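Standup notes, protein team

Yesterday: finished cleaning the Arachis duranensis set.
Today: WAT1-related protein structure.
Blockers: none.

Input for WAT1-related protein:
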Amino acid sequence: MEHKKSCLLIVCKEFKPHILMFLAQVGCALVYFITEASFNHGMSPFLYVTYRYFVAALVMFPFAYFLERKQRPKLTFALFMEIFVLSLIGISAPINMYFASLQYTSPTLVASMFNIVASLTFIIAVALRYEALDIGDPRGIAKVIGTLISLGGVMTMTLYKGPPMRNLWGPLIHIQGKNGGTEENWLKGSLLAVTSCVLLSVWYIMQASTLKRYPAQLSLTSWMCFVGAVQSAVFTAIVQHHPSAWFIGFNIDLWSTLYGGIVVSGLVIYVQLWCTEKKGPVFVTMTTPLCTVLVAILAYFVFGEKLYLGSMIGACFVIVGLYLLLWGKEGDQQVHTITKDTSNCNGEDPVELCKI
């Protein structure tokens, strides 16, 4: 008995990053259905984003204050304005668009769209010469082909809805249906999701640059969550003219806000940072498509959501393209690690071969 217990502990310790990232993706998958239920209950997506990131800022602040007290640089006005722009293109604008698109499409499509962020980031990085691309290398070819396949999958999801797949049984958990299911709403929601992903891709590029001047990840995250929440609050105040809409009771609206702020924007970020330190960024990114698979399974078998042929075909293309791109990127990561170790042995600074 003791031997089995000891073996189990060893396995859990060995696969701790894998288990944590799986649980993180489960947490991310559930947020689509919780927020969909909240939006169908009547909560504004803009108000949800505002409250969610205020909660996230409160959750992240103690960790940032105590853990980065010595390494956090002075916040100048120029640096604050840079954080303001980062918050605008990385939180308030794209996240509002992202969740607004959930009202017009489906959780499966919205979750699938997020997988193209890596491909779009790669395109922008190559255009700005942040990313090296060697067409003569198999991994370089994999990057290009993977990017093209992912973009083709997105075009399929956006322009081709297709017939719905027949449900095998009724929903085990009921979510009040959304109002719009027309082709026009589907296209509108898809375009909102794509625009959100483009902004997030630009944000990742800018964030890498800002971290060089403000190398405090938790503090930067806290600032962006807070500033993004304020920006979203201003926008919500413009479009939401009824003060009563700002009050939420002890219902799905409150629970979705707390869940999104504490679990997704708090605990999941911490898990991703820990796993990045232990296993590297490629490992963390490789688990991203798992969220799409979990959303599709839950949507179809548990919540009785309609799965459309176009979404399923497009999602498959996006995931295949993403893994091709990540396989190519993994080669860069290995070269970067070897170069860094060699440079440290020679007493020289490492050469930055991969800036993403």
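Follow-up from PR in the comments: Confidence is low (pLDDT under 50) at residues 336-356.
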